[in-house]
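Appendix B: a complete holo record

For completeness, this appendix reproduces one full record from the ligand-bound portion of the collection. The bound molecule is adenosine-5'-triphosphate. The inputs are the chain sequence and the ligand SMILES; the output is the full three-dimensional arrangement of the complex, encoded as structure tokens. No fields have been trimmed.
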Amino acid sequence: MNALPDKIDAGTAVVCRDATVTYPGGVCALDRINLSVRQGERLAFVGPSGCGKTTLLRVIAGLQPLTSGVCQRSNPSQHGSENKQEDAVEKSQYDEAHEEGHPCAADRRSVSTSFVFQQPALLPWTNVLKNVALPLTLGRRRERSSAKELRERALAAIEEVQLTEAATRYPHQLSGGMKMRASIARALVTRPEFLLLDEPFAALDDMLRNQLGRLYLNLWRHHRFTSVLVTHNIAEAIQLSERICVMHRGSIVSEMVNPLSTSKPHEDLRRTNEFAEFFGKVSDGLENAASSNSERASS
Ligand SMILES: Nc1ncnc2c1ncn2[C@@H]1O[C@H](COP(=O)(O)OP(=O)(O)OP(=O)(O)O)[C@@H](O)[C@H]1O
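The structure of the chain with adenosine-5'-triphosphate bound, as generated:
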């Protein structure tokens, strides 16, 4: 595993030290996580259901209070702050928003962090343009921008995801892939420092998944946000990330630098021997963790 820097510096986006989360009721979702994420890095968490991926994503976003340990983010407005009491207040807002499928959960906390979830959660009563502009509208007073400026920024984000022609359509008039594009545009419209993606493409078929994966890489090349992707899909993690953390039962059991990482979408990557080899390495990491756990349980 990478050595953790002593303190958060200009090139580091997040550092977690012994980050532990035990939920009320006693479930230990994260067990002494040590992790450092570089600014502009594309990181993926893979692991079985319930291993703590989403919890770690929320810790990184500053939305989940720790039971013990520290998580520091380099967000200029919170530089060097520790993930303590302040987050307890934010968490309840986030949970309320997330459970209701509120599209701007992250923006309630900070324009510097955006989420993309599996469900695009667009507001059904308004069109793509207004859905995408919503985070800007909510932060308008803070940003002191005119309605015209906000509209232009929203239109630019819509153009980036190639949805310009659907800007005046309502969510029920969009395909699944178009809804996800709108959701990505809404996440990026605030130019976030962090883009956190929780199984964003899991509900889509392979073709759409690949299309959106390419879109995501193109957007990253353009904006260089720090990105953390949660996925069950090893192939997707390899295609989209520079580093893969394999999680099991609240721990990061292995961390692998992706030798195939490229920000340029590579159509034939999946057909190469190198891909098969690295895929095998990541799935071995998952299987080894599962078997060492079951051995421990039976001894
Ligand atoms: N609010 C909560 N209260 C109590 N336990 C929780 C809460 N949220 C998650 N957990 C538990 O914490 C553990 C980790 O959950 P988490 O959602 O982080 O896992 P995950 O790896 O993202 O799972 P999945 O892939 O199924 O989404 C699980 O055992 C889960 O049941």
